[in-house]
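// run 5 | inverse folding | seed 20
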C-alpha cells in the first residue's frame, strides 16, 4: 500500500495536460493575446495554467511563464474539456428537451449573447435561457466554446427551472429583473406625463404623447433596435447642434446669443457625433460587455445632463437675461428622460456586467490616461462652470445659459470618460482603439471649431489665458489618443 501511494503521487493522472503536452511554442497573434490575458502571475503561482483555445475546441493553450505560453492539440480527435482542463472523447449529441421542435435544426449561439456554458461544475447537456422565451441554449461540457440554440414548438416557451419546453398558457411567468425594469420605466413615464399635463397646453401634450408612444414602440423591439436608434439619434442631434445652433438656442433659451453660446452647443454636437462613431465601430463586437458599457456611459451622461437641465430650468427662471423656455422643459428635458430611460432599461436587462482581465500594456496605459484627463475636464466643466467661464472668456455679464451649456458639455465628457475607464477591460483590441480614435477625431474637431470661433469673434470674447489652455491641455489630451491608437496591445516580460 505505501508503494502504491508513492506511485500515485509520482505518476501523472491520465489525460492531465501540462507544458510537456504542447506541440508548438510559436503562437499566432490571437493566441498571443489570450496568453497575455490569462497567464498572469497569480495564475502561474496557483498552477491555473491550462485553458481552451479561442477558435478550435481540439486545441488548448498552456502558460509557460507570466504572459508566455504554448499551444497543444488533443490526440485522436479528442476535444478539450474547459472544465476538467483535459482532453476528452468527442461529445455525444444532446437529447432535445420535452416540448422542443425536432424539425428545427440547432443553430450556433448569436455573437451578441454571452456564452453561459463556461461555468465550473456544469453538467453535460445543461440548458440555459435564451433572450427569446421560445428558445434555449444547449451546453455540452466538452464543447463549452460552441453552444447551440434550440427552439420550442409553436406556442411553447422554455422553463429554465424544469429544463423543458411547456405551453405558454401553463407557464407561470415570474417577474424578474427584465419585467420589473420595464414596468417601473413605463410607470415612471406615465407619472411624468400626468404631472406635466397639469400645466401643458394641447400642443405640448401632443408632442410629448407622440414622443412617448414612439419610445414605447422602439423599446419593445429589443436591444439591437434600441442600439441603432441611439446611434442614429446621436448623429441627428449632433448635426442639428452644429448646423442649427442659433435656431436651437432661440427656441430653448431667452438670451442674447453670443460666440460662447454657439461654441459650446456646437462642441456638444461634436461629442455626440464622436460617440455615434464609436457606437458604429463596435456595433458587431464579439465582446458583448462593450455594448453594456456604452449604454451605462449613456445613462451616466444622460442623468448628469438631466440634472443640469432641471437646475437651469428652475434656478434661472427669474433671470431675465438668461433663462430657459417652456420648449426646453417640455421638449429637451423630456427627450433626455426618454433617451436615458431606454438605456437604463437595457442596462438592467443585461447579464453582461463584467469585463475581462486587465493586462499591462501600452494600449491600456493610454486608455487609463484618457480616462483621467477626460474625467477631470468633465468634472471641471460640470461642477465649476462659472470659474471656467471667467478663466476662458472676457464676458463681463455671464448668464445662466453660459453655465448650463458648460454643464451639459461636462456631462458628455463624464460619459466618455466612463467608456475609457472601462475599455481597458475589453477583450478585443480593435474595440479599445475605437475609443481612442473617437477621442482623436472629437478633439481635432473641437480645436478646429475653437479656431473658427476665436477668429470670427475677433478675439473679443475669449480670454488670453484660454489659448494656452486649448493649445496645451487639449494638445496633450489629443496626443495621448494618437499615440494610443498605434501602441502595443500586449506586454512581454
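// decoded
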Amino acid at each position: 500500500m505505501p508503494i502504491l501511494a508513492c506511485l500515485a503521487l509520482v505518476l501523472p493522472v491520465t489525460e492531465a495536460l501540462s507544458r510537456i503536452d504542447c506541440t508548438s511554442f510559436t503562437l499566432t497573434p490571437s493566441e498571443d493575446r489570450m496568453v497575455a490575458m490569462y497567464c498572469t502571475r497569480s495564475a502561474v503561482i496557483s498552477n491555473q495554467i491550462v485553458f481552451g483555445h479561442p477558435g478550435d475546441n481540439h486545441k488548448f493553450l498552456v502558460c509557460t511563464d507570466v504572459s508566455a505560453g504554448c499551444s497543444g492539440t488533443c490526440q485522436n480527435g479528442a476535444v478539450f474539456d474547459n472544465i476538467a482542463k483535459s482532453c476528452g472523447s468527442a461529445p455525444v449529441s444532446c437529447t432535445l428537451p420535452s416540448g422542443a421542435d425536432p424539425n428545427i435544426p440547432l443553430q450556433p449561439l448569436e455573437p451578441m449573447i454571452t456564452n453561459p456554458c463556461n461555468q465550473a461544475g456544469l453538467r453535460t447537456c445543461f440548458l440555459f435561457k435564451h433572450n427569446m422565451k421560445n428558445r434555449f441554449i444547449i451546453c455540452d461540457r466538452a464543447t463549452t466554446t460552441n453552444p447551440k440554440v434550440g427552439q420550442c414548438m409553436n406556442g411553447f416557451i422554455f422553463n429554465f427551472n424544469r429544463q423543458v419546453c411547456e405551453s405558454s398558457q401553463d407557464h407561470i411567468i415570474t417577474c424578474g429583473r427584465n419585467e420589473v425594469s420595464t414596468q417601473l420605466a413605463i410607470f415612471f413615464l406615465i407619472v411624468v406625463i400626468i404631472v406635466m399635463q397639469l400645466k401643458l397646453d394641447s400642443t405640448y401634450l401632443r408632442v410629448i404623447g407622440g414622443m412617448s408612444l414612439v419610445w414605447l414602440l422602439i423599446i419593445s423591439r429589443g436591444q439591437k433596435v434600441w442600439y441603432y436608434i441611439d446611434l442614429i439619434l446621436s448623429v441627428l442631434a449632433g448635426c442639428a447642434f452644429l448646423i442649427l445652433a442659433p435656431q436651437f438656442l432661440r427656441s430653448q433659451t431667452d438670451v442674447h446669443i453670443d460666440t460662447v453660446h454657439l461654441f459650446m452647443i456646437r462642441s456638444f454636437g461634436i461629442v455626440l457625433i464622436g460617440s455615434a462613431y464609436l457606437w458604429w465601430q463596435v456595433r458587431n463586437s464579439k465582446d458583448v460587455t462593450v455594448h453594456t458599457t456604452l449604454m451605462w456611459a449613456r445613462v451616466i451622461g444622460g442623468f448628469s445632463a438631466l440634472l443640469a437641465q432641471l437646475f437651469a430650468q428652475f434656478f434661472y427662471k427669474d433671470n431675465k437675461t438668461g433663462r430657459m423656455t417652456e420648449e426646453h422643459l417640455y421638449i429637451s428635458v423630456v427627450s433626455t428622460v426618454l433617451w436615458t430611460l431606454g438605456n437604463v432599461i437595457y442596462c438592467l436587462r443585461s447579464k453582461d456586467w463584467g469585463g475581462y482581465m486587465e493586462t499591462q500594456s501600452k494600449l491600456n496605459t493610454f486608455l487609463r490616461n484618457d480616462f483621467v484627463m477626460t474625467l477631470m475636464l468633465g468634472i471641471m466643466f460640470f461642477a465649476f462652470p462659472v470659474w471656467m467661464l471667467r478663466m476662458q472668456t472676457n464676458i463681463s455679464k455671464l448668464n445662466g445659459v453660459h453655465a448650463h451649456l458648460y454643464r451639459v458639455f461636462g456631462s458628455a465628457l463624464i460619459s466618455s470618460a466612463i467608456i475609457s475607464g472601462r475599455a481597458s477591460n475589453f477583450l478585443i483590441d480593435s474595440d479599445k482603439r475605437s475609443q481612442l480614435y473617437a477621442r482623436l477625431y472629437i478633439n481635432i474637431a473641437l480645436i478646429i471649431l475653437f479656431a473658427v470661433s476665436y477668429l470670427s469673434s475677433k478675439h473679443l470674447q475669449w480670454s488670453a489665458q484660454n489659448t494656452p489652455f486649448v493649445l496645451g491641455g487639449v494638445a496633450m489630451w489629443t496626443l495621448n489618443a494618437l499615440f494610443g491608437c498605434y501602441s502595443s496591445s500586449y506586454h512581454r516580460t
